[in-house]
Design brief:
Low-confidence stretches: 1-14, 18-26, 28-38
Strand order of the largest sheet: 1-2-3
Shape: elongated
Helix content: 40-55%
Distance between the termini: 62 Å
Strand content: 5-15%
Number of helices: 7
CATH superfamily of the largest domain: Glycogen Phosphorylase B
Order of helices and strands: HHEHEEHHHH
Structural class: mainly alpha
CATH topology of the largest domain: Rossmann fold
Number of strands: 3
Largest sheet: 3 strands, parallel
CATH architecture of the largest domain: 3-Layer(aba) Sandwich
Oligomer: single chain
Length: about 170
């Protein structure tokens, strides 16, 4: 039985326990018709990202960074969608050309959605190109190499044996 909430908005008879079948058994294509492989990924999720005119990623605190980056990576450079991103997401630092929103402010999120849907192709391309350029400078390969360099620069104090001796002494004293 529906309580008049979600079911009534989706056309379900409130006195029926029937569930609409629309989409339930429909297969999502790995990519939209006429679109080649998406940067080596043939997944259904990448196809959905590419088909979406707007990517709305609005965590209330840091998170969902890979979702935002995957959405951008899946876009067609000639006709990209627009990323709307929470300013609280860590990816907001790299995706400055996304439409950044405060997810606690529903009106600003609604305005960003309207702006994204009305955005001219030239602006969508510019924003996409800036974001993809920044992301390519901070790929996992670049991040990993930077991380390993920082480990190499660590100054270790004492030898391995001295470390274990200090650890044992501190454990005995506590």
């Amino acid at each position: 039985m529906c309580d008049g909430g979600v079911g009534s908005r989706h056309g379900m008879d409130q006195s029926s326990s029937a569930v609409p079948v629309t989409g339930t058994f429909q297969r999502v294509p790995s990519r939209p018709p006429g679109v080649g492989k998406i940067r080596g990924r043939g997944t259904a999720l990448a196809g959905l990202y590419r088909a979406a005119r707007v990517g709305l990623v609005t965590p209330l605190r840091d998170g969902m960074n890979l979702v935002a980056k995957e959405y951008i990576s899946a876009q067609d450079a000639e006709d990209p969608g627009v990323l709307i991103l929470s300013r609280f997401a860590g990816a907001a630092a790299e995706c400055r050309d996304a439409l950044l929103v405060n997810p606690f402010d529903a009106e600003s999120v609604a305005s960003a959605i309207a702006r994204a849907l009305e955005m001219p192709l030239s602006e969508r391309r510019d924003r996409y190109n800036h974001i993809i350029q920044t992301l390519s400078l901070n790929s996992s390969d670049v991040w990993g190499a930077r991380f390993l360099r920082s480990l190499e620069q660590l100054e270790l104090v004492g030898t391995n044996a001295e470390f274990w001796e200090r650890l044992a002494i501190s454990a005995v004293n506590s």
